[in-house]
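Bug #77: duplicate submission created two jobs. Keeping one. Sequence:
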Amino acid sequence: MQDIDERIPYQRIFEFLSEHASAFPTERKRQNYLASILDRLKSIRTAPDSARFVVSVEWTRGGVYGSQAIAMFTTDNIVRTGEKTGGYGYDKESTAIADVLNKSPEVLKLFFGRLEAGLQAGEIDLEDMRESMKLVFGYGVGLFNSTDHFFDGGVGTNCYRRNFEAIGWTAEKIATGNLFDVWEFRKATGKGDQDK
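Kept job's structure:
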């Protein structure tokens, strides 16, 4: 595609976010917002590649609002910790995991590459982005107004299997206990890959 500007990573994603940006009181504030989106997209595009990562969720004993969760992302030499959940009445495990995944450009790189390809190919319809993305990625992910919020919290962890399957990965809970859960995310291997 000749019309894609190589200086803008994920050009179709950038165009969508800039077209659907909230109203700003001044043009300068709008330009600052677009510059921050562009910086974020560049950091995602240049994030290191990974074929596997682990997300561990630690639970603290409850108080007034019950047990709370905090997730830690680990891959290669990178460790990142999300925010602790609060309150009650929602799925805290998926919320903690979504928070740390949204902070991990290595993960967003996988999804944004697939999303950009889908936008360029017309597989994902800009006019009905929410439903188009659900058809491609399944429930629990979306890109509607920010690069900082792709994974939804409170949706249940079963969504991750379908979400990651859409990019050729697997998501599996590999350990669980009273105060912890561990998820492994890895690039799927096909029959041909095993022979190499």
